[in-house]
Amino acid sequence: MPGIFISFEGPDGAGKTTALNKLMPLLQERTNKEIVLSREPGGSPISEKIRKIILDIHDQEMDDRTEALLYAAARRQHLIDVILPTLNEGKVMLSDRFVDSSIAYQGGGRQIGTKEVGEINDFAIDGHLPDLTIYFDVTPEVGLARIKKDHEGAMDRLEKEAIDFHNRVYDSYMDIVKANPDRIKAINAQQAPDQVVQDALTVIVNRFPNIFNKGE
Ligand SMILES: Nc1ncnc2c1ncn2[C@@H]1O[C@H](COP(=O)(O)OP(=O)(O)OP(=O)(O)O)[C@@H](O)[C@H]1O
Ligand SMILES: Cc1cn([C@H]2C[C@H](O)[C@@H](COP(=O)(O)O)O2)c(=O)[nH]c1=O
């Protein structure tokens, strides 16, 4: 496909959304290609409706496999509505979370199993993996403390899970990063926000020097 697909991953409170908002204009000034920023779960009208159901704090009785299937369904629709059209038009697609989130949160955190969650997601993504994934490395303690400090009253159903759940998510991410050294690059997300943005920018520009080459 003519475009490039970059996903951003990390535990809750890793700082992806904050960094992406600053990264977008820095990347845009280095390329003539249009850059599209989206997120999961969500990113398209149907997927945003599914997001509301998944993250609703009142949905306490949601079964773990139902949750995994809903994330995969939201992903499929996002892929069809946004990601594939963007890539087919030769643009740069940035997604705040993609399939690795399901492997880490549902496979590891919920203990459904990485193989099982991988299989339902293989059906959803049909081979469309990101060209590059940037992993924001932050411990669950630091990430959750950031969220509690700034948005405690607005925490969603997943963020409100026990620390054991978040520790399993973190461990699972570590395994995913180790298993995919070519696709996934980890950056230290416990640094100051501007340094995190600089590190992400360096990884992207080094990986795609022919695309982000304006102003050199
Ligand atoms: N490098 C940083 N150092 C300290 N605080 C940060 C940093 N980056 C972001 N924050 C703060 O941490 C909180 C979470 O940041 P943000 O929403 O960007 O994370 P996220 O990775 O998108 O989280 P989630 O996936 O849980 O939504 C925000 O209050 C933000 O201001
Ligand atoms: C894509 C995806 C996400 N999650 C979790 C991770 C977060 O706790 C929420 C999403 O909220 P964010 O503020 O937009 O990061 O959902 C998950 O468990 N599985 C997934 O596939």
UniProtKB/TrEMBL annotation:
CDD domains: TMPK (cd01672). Its EC number is 2.7.4.9. Residues 8-199 form the Thymidylate kinase-like domain. GO terms for cellular component: cytosol. ATP binds at residues 10-17. Pfam families: Thymidylate_kin. GO terms for molecular function: ATP binding; dTMP kinase activity. It is an enzyme of class 2 (transferase). GO terms for biological process: dTDP biosynthetic process; dTTP biosynthetic process; dUDP biosynthetic process. The keyword Ion transport does not apply. Gene3D superfamilies: P-loop containing nucleotide triphosphate hydrolases. InterPro entries: P-loop_NTPase (IPR027417), Thymidylate_kin-like_dom (IPR039430), Thymidylate_kin_CS (IPR018095), Thymidylate_kinase (IPR018094). Keywords: ATP-binding, Kinase, Nucleotide biosynthesis, Nucleotide-binding, Transferase. It catalyses: dTMP + ATP = dTDP + ADP. PANTHER family: THYMIDYLATE KINASE, UMP-CMP KINASE 2, MITOCHONDRIAL. Phosphorylation of dTMP to form dTDP in both de novo and salvage pathways of dTTP synthesis. Belongs to the thymidylate kinase family. NCBIfam families: DTMP_kinase. This is Thymidylate kinase.
